[in-house]
Amino acid sequence: RKESSAASDVYKRQPDTSPLAVEDQHSRRILDLVARGEAHSRSEIAALLGVAASTVGLRVQSLLDAGVLEEAGDGTSRGGRRPRVLQIAGDGIVLSADLGGQHARIGRHSLSGALLGVESIAIDLTDGPEATLGRIAEVFERLGADTRIHAIGVSLPGPVDTLTGSVDQPSRMPGWPGFRVGEHLAGRFGTHVTVDNDANLAALGEHRAQFGHTHHSITVKAGTAIGSGVIVDGHIHRGATSAAGDITHTRIDGSGDIPCSCGNTGCLETVASGASLVRQMRERGNDTVRTTADVLTLARDADPLATSLVRTAGTHLGQALSGVVNFFNPHAVFLTGGMSASEPFIAAVRSRVYEACHPLATQRLRIEAATTGADAILHGAARLALEGMDVAAG
Questions:
Q1: For 22-54, what is each residue's pLDDT tens digit?
Q2: Considering only CA atoms, which of 67, 39, 72, 37 is closest in space to residue 53?
């Protein structure tokens, strides 16, 4: 159906992909400091950010006007006028949705970004965008029935054009290319909507939990398929065409001529993804294996073939990551998705990266399983939605 002009206006408030303006960075840092309890007043914020009190005052006022921050009485005086205490507003929520091929996870968050609850529902992306988003919207409406929905963040399992909020050239999403998910949901809920790729949002969610708004990291989502996101100075780095961090289609030496969904052969996904492990197990005579979890269970039970394949997959991923680590020099590589539950897989990734990279690139490098687990994408979606709302308010 044709979206209303109001829906378009709401959605156009989504921030563009140009470098963040200084004032928008201040808004994000202010929210983060208050949410973490590191600052309670304008003066404390100004001291921690190292900026003028007048600048902080303007940014705080815009966040108060947006309903994201609120004042909670007077603080303790240190010789002058008693400061007004700031806190994250308790009125309203942020909603997030992580869409997979056959299911969706939907999160309800406070305005600090904290995850208050999660629901899972069955969906089928091949039903098309309107039917699928209709099911998501029903849950959104129920979760937001008794409060204000300040913003919505949506994760899609394919390349996303963040300017239009639509998937771009997805391999397994018939009917979705060009469909403006953000505008569609903004028209229904009249609120700010952000849309991004699942790997980017997993990277943002994990990075913020580990480092806040500083440092650099790569998060690899290794499950049935493989995706990755890059975080620079606490923010998603998407690149010129939103393809930054896509190691999925890196050619792997010795991978053979297995065709990939991208049209090439020998890509990382054909030898290191959960789907590839299932295929290889079945090719070697194990017809009982149907899912990535089946392979990982066999590996945990010390099945020789499954263990060997899992370790080899980790080595292949480490090979693909080694060039990225040498070039980018991140503080950490985080692994999420089903494969990250396997210690042999993580050990193989770590071993190959340390072996192949320059010692300076790995001197302080952490390679470990993500702490946010299955909720990483929801955390990232909520964070991005909050930040988009802040920019719009400013």
A1: 556 777 788 778 877 788 899 899 998 888 988
A2: 39
